């Protein structure tokens, strides 16, 4: 154990924690009497500074191993996800500047930064314990964030729901982890995968299944995959807008990055051994490939359930936040599909990362608009958006771009993300099953257009009941325009983001 | 294929002239009639020039041939022989008469004369086309203005009359189109487009190849195709029992339009039979000669008989038109005899000459009679029952005299034009089918009786009180009518002016037909 | 150069959004200028394309990691359809001259749609083609749902969902072809040369074909078309029928048939005489022809007549495609042009010239209005357009439909026979509409005359005349001299046929 190495490895997290303490210190120490707007601004700016510092730290952080076991990886999916987590956190903090739901901005920002630190940890974690610790850090922070609008009953209610479900899923996860450890004798993902493939766990199939199902329950909860999604609509609806944006983006990115990390570990177990050689030497039955088969199966089931249920449930929503929640469930389904049919090369990992990064970005923007409208109208029902194009054309345009991107319409980035992801699935494995699943996903994304258009119809088509203009504050506008521009530009030049992601991977 | 004698495209010019006139007339407002008259006059002159430029051997001249849609193998192919040129002249004359007669059109005159000129263009186009494609274009192009002329300016029951006219003729057109499509598709090879060129088809038919081709592609449908084509033309002429649209259309159409319908458009049917049906489907028509002759005789006799039963003058003349064109059909079907001997050939030539001349004569005479109907109706306030008048000879002697001449021309008085053609027809038909000819004489007699009754009831007898001041023809009117009357006499007395050009064509046509 | 038609349209759309809201006249003129510029480019590109074969305009690697090319090119078929788009877009602007509501947004969406359409016709990369294809969907939705009439939100949503489901099928096919080919390129040429297995083509072809054919209004996936057309504002229905349906047909030809030619091979067994996808789609096309015509015959709403007639006429395009011979495919492409122009004209007359004045499209009400007298321009324009639509000689429809019929005769005479019935019914429904809407026999009562005096219709304005003249001239020129298009279509079709299809 080399603590210098550990320090270097966890420099980003450390930067965030220091920033969190600094925010608390400044806010509580100097600004208690200041105007709320000032306090919020200062807290947000400090938080953003922390994020920027962490961003810099990410670029110099290296992997960390304890003995032979890798604890924290660097570069690859971890690198991409960490940068994304920090950037998206900064964006949600920017959105905070214009909001006024809390009288304790210092605490809020500090919790956000801690959650982000948890996100950074799980993005890079390669060890069950680190994963669990990071996840808990993230989850606990999120429960607090959800409840942060103290005047709102809904906020408290949704936080409780979130917490109860979250605690239970954490229990499941821990239970699964313990089985994995018990079966393989290691907490390191690579060791587990190898043991499951060629070691002593190789014959313990049913237990391994149970363990993986338990793990999937825990992680499925984090990414809001059906049937572990129940918290999501309530939380999206009840949490204050910046918190909801954070949950919908940063937390998702980190959780999926964790899944990518797990997938990479499981699937790359044979990296050093030729797959065929392995078969010959150990004479494995073909249906059994270590963790791959059960893991694929579980993820596939989750993916299909999420796609179908998320899209269908979204059709019936009358609250835009809940609609976004169900749409996020559907998107999680697509991503899980990409994870289920994971590639031996980096293609799938990169496609998934591309998807989660752009989806996170788009979601923040969507919540930004919802937040503004909500504050002006007092509701996030579909009716609240009536005539938005007249009340604030810019917000309406942002809404248009972001929702169409979510629906996957070119030339917006959401389209590329989907295309990229589905192409990766099909390129990974031929055969009828992946094809059928992709067909299902594509068809359901056609269905999804319906509910996105339901919102856009209110914005653009139907007459306004109230035509008084809605004003958005400058920082929010700037953030939204920035996000919208990014969605369009990245959509027109998809290679930009792709090559950026690819740059985190060692060149073959 | 004839040599490409592509000199000055006078036939195209003739077709385009009325179209240009039509566009000008559309926007000319109250000057539309003047525009129309000038256009029609120019067209008449051009058609007369064409008449003088025909090849002496009766073959098709003034040919224009251009590639139009190579993938379909369609060429823009124009040309006229004596038959076509005579029809051009007739169309030009009738159109001019019609425009002259239509000086009381106050309701949308621009449109009226525009449509009339479009109709003329359709006539010119269909009489010069030698490829089914644009022939069909003009065939339809003439139909649509006719429909609207009836529909918009007709009598009280113009709506149903126009629709009936359109539906019948369209149905006939569809039959034509289907038949020709079948021929077209059959003549094409795997990658070569088929042909719809009348000249090429006639050559294929006369050598017997066409029947083989169609049979190879479609089975033994050639007779059915022939029936389809015949049906298309039979509606237009009309041949009984395809005539039921005619009385209503002729009666409801304003008289100037009726002049066009009977004077020129009905000739499109007869012309089609001679130019298209007989050359391409001669063998099949010869095989159906007897039933066709029966229909033609029925048309002749029943047309006359029906005319006798009418109370409305326009309907009287409408049915008498059916009767007169029946002679043409009679002769055409009669001359369809396979392998004729020398005597039969002479009879065929006489009959064919008669048919062509009869087309001209009937066009001229019938148009004139309907012109008089226009004049009478204008004076009677729309009344036109055969019993509504009496003794008009007294208040209106010139009218009575000139119309009398026209009526006598119609019943075939020697010295007037129709006599020559009807004589030629019967001269030809008697040796070829004496039964048909004999029964058809009945038609001649009834027609004579009908027309004499008309003269009797309208012009003779006591003058009713309210017609005592029936205005006679004024200067402009009889000066306009005079040339037509003179022409009737001219053709009646010196038929050679027309037959001189017709006879070579008739001989040429007969030499190429195969029954 | 043709690529500029795309860029100009999109740039025009962007500028149009930014134009001041309260100056509709400015937005109109701007849109007209952009559309005319597009038309000029299209004409110039067309004129320069005689004897050129396929010209590559741009070919750049767009997404290197996936082998996606930004490849714009044009062959005769593309050029004809680009020309059609140019004509339709100018006419559409002219017939939208009276749009007063949110004018700048209207034209922005309109021009964006046009840009997408240009893009599809010029794309020679499957991905790029799909990209533009999808771009065209969204503006349609908004154009219809904001500026439309009868049940516009329903019609718009139905259309958007149908289109999106269709494009989802295409996307599946695209992904599958890309993954199966393994050539690491989505350029159409590369995919076509990838040697996709026959068994793959057998199932991918119908998928992609149907995906595109939905937008081409293939029976029984046509139901979006009448409702969409009826709900759409005039310019949008002109574009829908005029060019958007052509997108589908073009995709069927260029992509489905071009990439998966073996999908048309016989299955090796036959069921009630149907032994290949070719038979299936040809019969669907034929059914569409007859069904569309028959349903059009029974409508009481003027615009529905035209809407269903589009289904019928597009059946000819699909039938022409399925003939798989030179003349039939020539006819199909020509029919795309012809129907684009004629349907545009019919929709313009019904939607703009008549409806915007009478505010009804029900025959029962139109019958009492004596429109032939009060709107003679509309009446006569409809007469000519109707004649063109019937497929009478002298207009583009005749040459096009005849070629399709001849081609289908060579493939299977029964197709021709049944489709011929459709033509006859076509004459009937146009004539019925004409009679009912314009030329009723009933004479006006004095009371009606009085009310006519009170509610005089607005006079026909120059933009309407110009639009009618443009479209009529197009169909007439092509009808009288079809070689103007055929000379470019033929070599392109020949190349396509030689490039893989039977």
Automatic annotation (TrEMBL), chain A:
- Mind telling me what this protein is named? NADH-quinone oxidoreductase subunit N
Q: Which GO terms describe its molecular function?
A: NADH dehydrogenase (quinone) (non-electrogenic) activity; NADH dehydrogenase (ubiquinone) activity; quinone binding
Residue intervals passing through the bilayer: 40-64, 70-96, 108-125, 131-150, 162-181, 207-231, 243-268, 288-316, 323-345, 351-373, 394-413, 433-453, 474-497
Q: What class of enzyme is it?
A: translocase
- Name the source organism: Candidatus Sulfuritelmatomonas gaucii
Q: How does it sit in the membrane?
A: Multi-pass membrane protein
Location of the protein in the cell = Cell membrane; Endomembrane system; Membrane
Catalytic activity from the UniProt record: a quinone + NADH + 5 H(+)(in) = a quinol + NAD(+) + 4 H(+)(out)
Recite the UniProt keywords alphabetically: Cell inner membrane, Cell membrane, Membrane, NAD, Oxidoreductase, Quinone, Translocase, Transmembrane, Transmembrane helix, Transport, Ubiquinone
UniProtKB/TrEMBL annotation, chain B:
Topology of this chain in the membrane = Multi-pass membrane protein
Q: List GO terms (cellular component aspect).
A: endomembrane system; membrane
Q: Which GO terms describe its molecular function?
A: NADH dehydrogenase (ubiquinone) activity; NADH dehydrogenase activity; ubiquinone binding
Q: Which UniProt keywords apply?
A: Membrane, Transmembrane, Transmembrane helix
Q: Does the keyword Ubl conjugation apply?
A: no
- Compartments it resides in: Endomembrane system; Membrane
Q: Name one GO biological process term.
A: ATP synthesis coupled electron transport
User: Which PANTHER family does this chain map to?
Assistant: NADH-UBIQUINONE OXIDOREDUCTASE CHAIN 4
Q: Which family does it belong to?
A: Belongs to the complex I subunit 4 family.
Protein's name according to its UniProt entry: Proton-translocating NADH-quinone oxidoreductase, chain M
Native organism: Candidatus Sulfuritelmatomonas gaucii
From TrEMBL, chain C:
Instruction: Tell me which InterPro entries the record gives.
Output: NADH_Q_OxRdtase_chainM/4 (IPR010227), NADH_UbQ_OxRdtase (IPR003918), ND/Mrp_TM (IPR001750)
Report domain NADH:quinone oxidoreductase/Mrp antiporter transmembrane positions.
125-422
Q: Which domain of life is it from?
A: Bacteria
Q: Name one GO molecular function term.
A: NADH dehydrogenase (ubiquinone) activity
Q: Where does the UniProt entry say this protein principally localizes?
A: membrane
Q: How does it sit in the membrane?
A: Multi-pass membrane protein
Q: Where in the cell is it found?
A: Endomembrane system; Membrane
Q: Which UniProt keywords apply?
A: Membrane, Transmembrane, Transmembrane helix
Question: Which GO terms of type biological process are on file?
Answer: ATP synthesis coupled electron transport; electron transport coupled proton transport
The entry sums up its family as follows: Belongs to the complex I subunit 4 family.
Q: Which PANTHER family match?
A: NADH-UBIQUINONE OXIDOREDUCTASE CHAIN 4, PROTON-TRANSLOCATING NADH-QUINONE OXIDOREDUCTASE, CHAIN M
NCBIfam families, per the entry: NDH_I_M (TIGR01972)
Protein name, as recorded = NADH dehydrogenase I, M subunit
